[in-house]
Specification:
The chain is mostly beta strands. It is 13% helix and 42% strand.
């Protein structure tokens, strides 16, 4: 799945209820045609942006900060650059943004990806001051480039709820989910289109299915997570039913398999996210609680029960 490609396994940390209670919400900006999940209302500033060919453009930079001591501590930015006056330079735009992020540290992931049917580029960089930068770059049909960056300490879980939430909107504020490939090399095989989505869905189903125990002393008889039947959410997203059991409580929900909310385990009645899942190769899965009724639960590393 998209998360599994570049988010490391979640470490098992105990976090208090107060530290857990960081509130995330959807931020929508109609003027710049995007929405994204953020931990707070962002500040907005305009900054100069020079292309590789020397053209001076303006960037709108949206910045939200989550306080130290919370599980999402860090700085979250979305930079939007309008290339309408430099359309002939869109071919260089993604590579310029990519190199700027890579220059900040040691790359751990760096590859083309599919973000809501848009050709994108995903990066993870580790910096000398022990921070992790997770980046996502998209070029949209409105001639804008969108660059999201989450700069968080290595000691907190990767902020999947930010990285996976970026959506491009049309002039009416409606999410765009049509195939958009701009300035891609002729020989590039991009993970975009119906066949790619079907392959992604099959991969995630295979990775997340089964009975899972907590690797920190849990048993298969009292499994932490059990997958169920394939289903769809109230929004029509492909999902898998499942139950999570911990601390004497069992929570039934739906694990979203593809799309902008991929990896989220939600309450099917309220449509609100409860947990974030990070299925990995080799029968491993990281899981993090971010919503009620699981607030206060420690992150867990799960192992697939064989047989």
């Amino acid at each position: 799945m998209r998360l599994a490609c570049f988010i490391p396994a979640v470490a098992a940390l105990f976090i208090s209820g107060a530290a857990y209670a960081q509130v995330w919400d959807s931020y929508v900006n109609r003027d710049n045609f995007f929405s994204v999940n953020l931990p707070s209302e962002p500040t907005v500033k305009e900054a100069p942006y020079k292309t590789v060919k020397g053209t001076n453009l303006a960037a709108n930079v949206f910045t939200a900060v989550a306080a130290a001591g919370t599980r999402s501590a860090g700085t979250y930015t979305v930079t939007v650059v309008d290339y309408s006056n430099a359309k002939n330079e869109l071919g260089d735009a993604m590579e310029q943004a990519r190199k700027a992020i890579l220059a900040k540290g040691t790359p751990k992931y760096d590859a083309v990806n599919n973000m809501d049917m848009h050709r994108g580029w995903a990066l993870t960089v580790e910096t000398p001051d022990k921070h992790r930068i997770m980046g996502q770059i998209i070029i949209a049909a409105n001639n804008r480039i969108y660059i999201s960056e989450a700069d968080t300490p290595m000691s907190v879980p990767p902020p999947a709820q930010f990285q996976a939430s970026l959506q491009i909107l049309d002039k009416d504020g409606i999410r765009i989910r049509t195939r958009t490939v701009i300035a891609a090399p002729e020989n590039e095989v991009a993970p975009i289109g119906p066949q790619a989505n079907a392959a992604e869905l099959a991969k995630v189903v295979a990775l997340a299915s089964g009975t899972w125990r907590n690797s920190a002393g849990g048993s298969c008889q009292s499994a932490y997570f059990k997958s169920g039947a394939r289903t769809k959410t109230a929004r029509g997203e492909e999902s898998m039913a499942g139950t999570i059991t911990n601390a004497g409580m069992t929570i039934a929900g739906q694990l979203i398999l593809v799309g902008a909310r991929e990896g989220q385990f939600i309450d099917p009645k309220s449509d609100k996210v409860i947990m974030l899942f990070d299925p990995q190769e080799g029968g491993k899965m990281g899981i993090s609680a971010i919503g009620a009724p699981a607030l206060g639960w420690p992150d867990a590393a799960l192992e697939l029960c064989r047989g």
